[in-house]
Amino acid sequence: MLHPIGRTCGDRLPQDPYIWLEDVEGEDALEWVRARNAEQATALAGSEEFVATRNRIRTILDSDEKIPDISKVGEHYYNFWRDAEHERGIWRRTTLESYRTDEPEWEIVLDVDALNEAEDANWVWHGASVLRTGPDAYRLAIVDLSRGGADADVSREFDLQTKEFVDGGFYRPESKGGTSWIDSDTLFVFTDTGEGTMTSSGYPRIARRWRRGTPVEQAEVVYEGREDDLYIAAMHDSTPGFERDFVSRALAFYNDELYLLGDDGELTLIDIPNSANAGVHREWLTVELREDWTVDDVDGAGRTITQTYAGGSLLALGFDTFIAGSRDFHVLYEPTAGTSLADYTWTRHHLVLNILDDVKNRLVVLTPDAGRFRSTEFVGAPHAGTVAVAPVDSRRSDAVWLYATDFLTPTTLSIAEIGSEPEPLKAMPQFFDPSGLLIEQHFATSDDGTQVPYFLVRREDLTSDGSNPTLLYGYGGFEISLTPTYSGAMGSAWLERGGVYVLANIRGGGEYGPAWHQAALKENRHRAYEDMAAVAKDLVARGVTSAEHLGVQGGSNGGLLTGNLLTQYPELFGAVVIQVPLLDMKRYSQLLAGASWMAEYGDPDDPDQWEFIRTFSPYHLFDAEADYPPVLLTTSTRDDRVHPGHARKMAAQLLAAGKDVTYYENIEGGHGGAATNAQAAHMSALAYRFLAERLGL
């Protein structure tokens, strides 16, 4: 039964008494935030256990023994690094030969802490793109920096030889958006250039060709989208011999158009379903389908051939052949009941498929050969819970980076030439003691009979009496898959202390391909929450834990998940952690980037769609008379993706009803919740100590 805030006389919603908390940096709202931060969160942070947990997590995050991830740019290998001495981080480079040693020699290219001191700023690194062609190849870069970790950032031209920002160089003012190098004097740019140039979701609506010395707002328009589009961008592919320009028009999540941009400005639509993902590598076009696609092709005898390709498949065809009208695709991968395509990676001559088989990775190598693709196993593929693959230099090399990990095994990084045994390069140290721990996979039965997998990390001698403090984590949205990964913070703060950890692979995610995601969209959103509740019930039925010892945690869309578990299944949990969440689903589409998620949740301004959206809007499902478990709500003032008003307003009504609420809002951090290792350690320790105290760990 819906609480009256969700249905009133005449089916009208009452006035929101806490809407003033949506004023992100308003003085009244910030005064409320400071007051809430000073309550239970401050008391929790004052304990000796919290300090010890926070300090240990900070030590892990700052450790010099972490794997420095590198990317090849020209002859150098670049890495961005944060530690105790570099709070905001340094961009640095080395050689592969040096990287292979225990103590690589790093050359600092940009020190963000020093930059902040010089400019009296709070810049957070957002990445860099390097020019890869022409006389200035590998010398010029565009560096993206964000104030306080927000999604909006600035782009500044940087010289990798002088290691200084280019005086009078390209500068994109603060906005959501980005750039793409065309040549040393030209960029594609998509950004806020004045009134009417952003979509209703707060992303760029116009893509421009920006020539050096031209004001960005006067740059040539190459494509102009509509206000109700999601995101417009333009990209240049500088692969030698295959130089092409593209325009991307995102209408919504998983609803895109891709155009080939000709030298004369003419646009040619890459005519595939809008729900599909197109990729271009040298002479090949790849198409990753989310839905079945029936297409006609004409054979050599002029006969029309109708072919249906299954959703979740990966197809390939020569790019020029496709543009000429052929639809005779190679089927590179087709899903089965238990498998899905997690990812695919091109090298110079090969394509590596990363397949999830009941949420465990398996690698396959495909090689174009006389018009066909020859399939072989990946030589020396790691046997681990999670394996990730990335190209070292897909233009010139057949080498790939391999990352392998699971809950109890620290990540290892190897480099492998396709067809040869991988060469281990780096391994993360053990940040917690895994002895006596084991990993299991189980399946829970959801309300409609669907089998929902989950991973369980527990002690070998676990007593099945329901007394074990257990943390259940999930996400269930946007086709994002959750797989076993190593976390020194979770291991040291939870597993090592005797806690049980559970990762749920509920519908809405991508663990079994697009269909697993689509099963929990819009009016079927309830299935994600039913799946998570089914896992919770299965844990109790197995004697792993009981409601008073079971906690649940999630962030962003996972915060919407945990908000619904709080309001719809409060009897299943002893504590709930809700991080950077969506919670007010009536207002979400009007707040920051919220309009971009209507393909996932629906349009609350449409009365028919509001009828089902109201059933998973925790802010409206709240019942002041109901009994709820203790709640930790966290967010960030600088989160310009999911509005902090969601967490603020939910906390306000919970507190007004006298519920047990711990609230903490980080002033910096963006959607990730933290801008530095110190902030990340504090936020992480809050969650683990809150759960430990409430669940009896």
Automatic annotation (TrEMBL):
* Peptidase S9 prolyl oligopeptidase catalytic domain: residues covered: 493-696
In what residue span(s) does the Peptidase S9A N-terminal domain sit? 15-239
Gene Ontology molecular function terms on file: oligopeptidase activity; serine-type endopeptidase activity
A Pfam family of the record is: Peptidase_S9_N
**Which controlled-vocabulary keywords does the entry list?**
Hydrolase, Protease, Serine protease
Gene Ontology cellular-component annotations: cytosol
Instruction: Tell whether RNA-binding is among the UniProt keywords.
Output: no
Q: Which GO terms describe its biological process?
A: proteolysis
Taxonomic superkingdom:
Bacteria
Q: Which PANTHER family match?
A: PROLYL ENDOPEPTIDASE
Report the protein name in the record: Prolyl oligopeptidase
